[in-house]
Write a structure and sequence with these properties.
About 40% of the residues lie in helices and about 25% in strands. The strands form three sheets. Strands 1, 2, 3, 4, 5 and 6 form a six-stranded mixed β-sheet that branches. It has a four-stranded antiparallel β-sheet with strand order 7-8-9-10, covered by helices on one side. It has a three-stranded antiparallel β-sheet with strand order 11-12-13, with helices on one face. The relative contact order is 0.10. The protein has about 350 residues and is an alpha+beta fold. The chain is globular and about 60 Å long. It has three domains: about 120 residues, Phosphatidylinositol 3-kinase Catalytic Subunit, Chain A, domain 1 (Ubiquitin-like (UB roll), Roll); about 80 residues, Acyl-CoA Binding Protein (Up-down Bundle); about 80 residues, Pleckstrin-homology domain (PH domain)/Phosphotyrosine-binding domain (PTB) (PH-domain like, Roll). InterPro entries: Band_41_domain (IPR019749), FERM/acyl-CoA-bd_prot_sf (IPR014352), FERM_2 (IPR035963), FERM_central (IPR019748), FERM_domain (IPR000299), KRIT1/FRMD8 (IPR051594), KRIT1_FRMD8_FERM_C (IPR057096), PH-like_dom_sf (IPR011993). This is Second domain of. It comes from Neocallimastix californiae. Pfam families: FERM_M, KRIT1_FRMD8_FERM_C.
């Protein structure tokens, strides 16, 4: 428990006085860690924390509904339901790790660094792009942009070199305002070692730093006059075109790990689940390995595997793909929830159309 980001502080008399919880946000062009302080109570409900975070960030009521608190580890990310107690979940965390990563160290050594996690306030697991587009308050756009930028940089959103320079140019506009030819010259980024804040590491070595800067500045000029808010909106518009945008990610591999230990797997794949389908991404050399909408595939799962049956749009042939992941249960649950959410939304739309038709007849 000593490594968890939620602690009880005592007063001078040694009695519990307050609760301190550390929460991370992808705050636009930076990662920000905040310490929130609450009066001591036996429980701290997740909604109490998300309400405070929404207030601090300045989100609208609509934007607040699209974000959630997450418990995040290198191998496991869990969205916390609003009504759950964070102390109870923190105590259960080693069991969650053992169950969903199959690493026995989580249970055998509770004080191990492996049990460390952080809280992140970010996008809710299943919201459609259409819903997100309608949320345009500046604070929420900043958070959505920050999360998308982070996913681009770490390879969860694989992209081509042309995508990289376009997004980097928009990021320049958000950070530095309009292009200034006397200021934004070759060396502006590379001399300060900040180019890696704009270029994903897997792309970085494919061109000289000077060439990256030249390509970025060439596009950067096109966005002069755009406000920070508009540049972020354009960044989001660009990334939302990708099928995997807005995914929640789960570690996976195809080849059986050495000695059957998932943490020793040689492939670093993730399965992304969003409102439209499932996607497999290779993080070692970021690229899309598989991407299908829910209506074009079927799947079955066990505690250790998930099996996809689908028809390739490219070849027209049926395929059978078996993936190893101790988080198959979570993947299936999120996918089923997404499908039900979409069905419910479509039903409401149909009901509204019927209501409109009846009113028009009158």
């Amino acid at each position: 428990m000593s490594r968890i980001p939620i602690t009880i502080h005592n007063n001078k008399e040694g009695k519990p006085d307050s609760i301190i919880i550390k929460v991370r946000t992808y705050a636009g062009d930076a990662i920000r860690d905040q310490a929130l302080k609450f009066p001591y109570q036996e429980q701290l409900i997740a909604k109490t924390v998300t309400d405070e975070m929404a207030t601090r960030e300045g989100q609208s009521p609509q934007g607040k509904q699209l974000c959630a608190l997450w418990m995040v580890h290198d191998e496991l990310e869990l969205q916390v339901r609003p009504e759950l107690d964070l102390f109870t979940l923190a105590k259960k965390w080693p069991k969650y790790l053992e169950k969903y990563t199959h690493n026995i160290e989580a249970i055998d050594n509770p004080n191990s660094e492996y049990n460390t996690f952080i809280y992140i306030y970010k996008r809710e697991a299943i919201i459609s792009r259409n819903v997100e587009r309608k949320c345009t308050d500046e604070a929420s756009v900043r958070l959505f942009y920050g999360e998308a930028r982070q996913n681009v940089l770490i390879g969860r959103y694989p992209c081509q070199a042309d995508d990289v320079t376009t997004l980097a140019a928009l990021q320049m506009q958000t950070m530095y305002g309009d292009y200034d030819k006397s200021k934004h010259v070759i060396g502006f980024l590379s001399d300060s070692d900040s180019l890696n804040e704009f270029i994903p590491s897997y792309h970085y070595g494919s061109k000289d730093p000077e060439e990256w800067e030249r390509l970025i500045f060439e596009k950067y000029q096109n966005y002069s006059g755009k406000s920070t808010f508009m540049a972020r909106m354009l960044y989001l518009q660009y990334t939302r075109q990708w099928a995997f945008y807005g995914s929640s990610f789960f570690p996976a591999c195809k080849t059986s790990p050495p000695n059957g230990l998932f943490q020793q797997r040689t492939e670093r794949w993730v399965i992304g689940v969003n409102d439209s389908g499932m996607h497999i991404i290779d993080l070692k050399n970021p690229k899309i390995l598989f991407s299908q909408t829910f209506d074009r595939m079927k799947w079955q799962w066990t505690s250790d595997t998930i099996v996809f049956d689908y028809n390739s749009q490219r070849t027209g042939k049926d395929h059978h793909l078996t993936i190893i992941t101790p988080q198959a249960y979570l993947i299936n649950s999120l996918a089923c929830y997404s499908i039900k959410y979409e069905e419910k939304k479509n039903l409401l739309i149909d009901m509204q159309r019927e209501k409109t038709k009846k009113q028009d007849k009158k």
